[in-house]
Amino acid sequence: MMKIRLSILTTAVLFFTGQMIDAQSKKKDTAAKENQIDEVVIVAYGTQKKETLVGSNTEIKAKQFADRPISNIGQAIDGASPGVKVATSTGQPGSAPSIQIRGIGSYGISTAPLYVVDGVVYTGSLSAINPNDIASFNILKDAASTSLYGSAAANGVILITTKSGRKGTDILNFNMSTGYVGRSIPEYDRVDVHQYYPLIWEAIRNGRLTTNPSDGLAAANTYATTNLISGVLKTNVFNVADNQLVVDGILNPNAQLKYTDLDWQKPLMKTGFRQNYELNYSGGSNKTTYFASVSYTNETGYVIKSDFERFTARLKVDSQIKSWLKLGTSISGVASNGNNAVDGAESNNAFQNPFRWTRTIGPIYSPYAHDPTTFATLYDDDGNIMYDPGSARGVDAATGRNVIQEVILNKNITKNYYIISRAYAEFKVDPYLTLSTNVGYDIRNFRRNRYGNKIIGDAAPAGNATRATFTEQTLTFNQLLNYKRKFGMHNFEFMLGHENYKYLYEFSSASKKDQVVDNNDDLINFVTITDATSQTDNYRKEGVFSRLNYDYKSKYLLSASIRWDASSRFAKDVRWDSFWSIGAGWRIKAEDFLRKSNTVSELKLRGSYGEVGNDGTNEYYMYQSTYALGYNNVQEPGILFNFFADPSITWEANKQTDAGLDFGFFDSRITGSVEYYNRITDDLIFPVPSPVSNGIPGNSIIKNVGTMYNRGFEFAISADIIRNENLTWNINANASTLKNEVTKLSDGITEIISGTKKVSVGHSVYDYWLKQWYGVDPADGSPLFLVADAYAGTTASDIRTVNGTLVTTNNTKAKFDYSGTAIPDLFGSFGTSIAYKQWSLSTMFTYQLGGMTYDSNYQSLMSSYSQGGALSKDILDRWTTPGQITDIPALNSSTAPHSNAASNRWLVKSDFISFRQATLGYSFYPESISQYGLTSLKILLSGENLWSKTARKGLEPVQTFNGSTANRYTPSRIITIGFNLSF
């Protein structure tokens, strides 16, 4: 109960402080009273005085993100704390970023942190929580902070605390903002229509010279001129004959475009719009406090038919029924729906992916149909523009498809309905002993409606539709016994707890094809069932836990905790395990020699060690071999061996060591921390290869077979450069390092190669394993690779010596080797906030130094023989003349497969700096607005993803942690104007 009262007190203080800031009240006596209140922070299953913490706990208060145009709390985490790396969310409205805390917690299972909302584990989407309902969030990073969550805490914990009411005058707040949504990451530079034809002609000519050298240059030129259109590109958008378009490598100077509507991006991408409205009401008496809110968010993306709409309503009530009994409850209802653009993260190479299409289609094709004689754009009988189905395109330009038409005609709609509920009861048994119980019940109903049109695309000519739905239910019930007592200068707090967690997942889906009538995508309007399935999964956990905190004069600090957890994912004999931590701290500031120091306002040394677990696998029945149903042959039933289990498989365990120094100087004008952590993951879950002859699905068995570590330093500093009655100026920064390395593989595993990475002892799981690109031979423009050892002693026409180095022009003989890592040397953020009288300005930049990105998007634009695909402007620097020094091979249809092979040629530096966020505000003086019944009024101008600088235009180096890229919905730039007012 004490923890609940402290939580409410903290929220009230934060809320009251926020109101003071907004109203620019300058009451000196209030500030003095606040300084007398011990600052408390949210910790696992309770609260604690900040000065007695020994764990790594970063607190982010509502005022730091309340004025930003964000749709979920995940976006506010970016840059908020050292040691926290964020892969930015896509531009799809409502999407959430991926988050890693202190490195790569696992290789084969989840690396996402655990989310806890008001003391209860939360597994739903972050977009279901209204950011303006959040009072604060705390990022727990070390074992001393996370171990009470045991088997789910290996990747860190994010505690989200929602707003509560406060005693006193009722307050009504109304917030509104509206603004612009656009693209933040520019597109790669590509050649235009005039440059394109001669480049493709050159590739054809050079390829002909390579395969038929005896024919001579003139014959090769003629061959390229003759086959440029009819044999390769299929479309000539200039008003000259096909065989006169490019002669001897020169575009016909008399050629004029027959039509100019060659831009595929413009019809698909536009300016989006964001609006947000919120009304909340709070207050309370000496016995009961309440907080109620309703909100509406509507954001349309910069890609057509992509949007997100959310309604939320929330009520929270806390009541001191008796001196010994306190009750509280909260309930949130959320309804959201959205149109979803095809995201490259899910469908990187899909033809209907608008980001892939607009990036990679050649600049010579129009999306629209044209009259073959007059070249005028064609319209149907209803006056609608007609689209070109692509019958006359090169093989790299998706013949028979039209992404604009498909995006317009197809549907992908999702709907979510949430109930998020919490309740607690707190019994004061005696002055020292408190018994509390908490229950949380969340339910999510998800629906997805898909429709594939019958005119063009994958579903043509029949059309198809899918209806999918799932329901997630989570029930958490815990009981906490808390004993807190002081003996002289000795302070003790002991907690004992028990918790049950239940998760139920129910899924069903049905698909049909052969559409009957137009403009109806309900399943009843389709004839043939193509798929109908359902699935139910259960997951259970139980834990018993305890924590002991001790301090002497808030000077010498000790903390210990232990939790026994059981997970239904594992077999009974390995289901239970213990997770624990011990931490200690020395608050040097409390020593006699520093207590009265005017220079040092805080100095604390702390450290901890502990073990936490991770059971976040994709399988709910890891210890059981399973079979897949649904492989029927007409009327004969059939099942298929699906998963071969190792019954001894169990948790991944994280052994974490943390050491930190917290400091403050000059009346806390300068504050900060320095930390070192070493995080060892044991029993890594890996797919162990199995011979094909064993008949095991996937030719692998998932086992606990590896060990790796993550270690690094974290730095954070905040300084008030100026702090007086009229002007405050603060600057802040944080920085983090990360070293990841696999130290052990067992069960006969020496390496695991997956895509561009190879996992082996002594290397990171994000180290690149690629063919070794050497460059371009100045003599003939051939692509060159270092020769693999197996071919070093052989002689062949594709092996040569260049500048004393043995190289090959054949990528299949290239040497593989480690080629850098996706992990940066340093990452973090910095920013400033300025408040001058009524004005305030805050900004934040994020940055990264070091690391490499494998830029497959750029690779697709650098083909040495594009047959209708777009080309980067960098291709203009290709080799053309003997003796020329360049790193771009000759355009050549014959050698193109080697030039464009996957290799370290496509690695690019991941360094970036981003202007992540800025907010400008103006607050009216209370006396100037009181006549209207207002207590505060603030006008805001805010922006997200305002600017970035990367190693290459178009590059997005933070879309994944492993350094890969995709043709995805790039993040949005959002600029809004709004106001907050209180009555």
TrEMBL record:
GTP-binding listed as a keyword: no
Organism name: Chryseobacterium defluvii
Glycoprotein found in the keyword field: no
UniProt name for this protein: TonB-linked SusC/RagA family outer membrane protein
Database matches in InterPro entries: Beta-barrel_TonB_sf (IPR036942), Plug_dom (IPR012910), Plug_dom_sf (IPR037066), TonB-dep_OMP_SusC/RagA (IPR023996), TonB-dep_OMP_SusC/RagA_CS (IPR023997), TonB-dep_rcpt-like (IPR039426)
Entry keyword set: Cell outer membrane, Membrane, Transmembrane, Transmembrane beta strand, Transport
Chief place of localization: membrane
Coiled-coil positions: none
TonB-dependent receptor plug domain span: 50-157
A Pfam family assignment: Plug
Membrane topology: Multi-pass membrane protein
Family named by the database record: Belongs to the TonB-dependent receptor family.
Lineage: Bacteria, Pseudomonadati, Bacteroidota, Flavobacteriia, Flavobacteriales
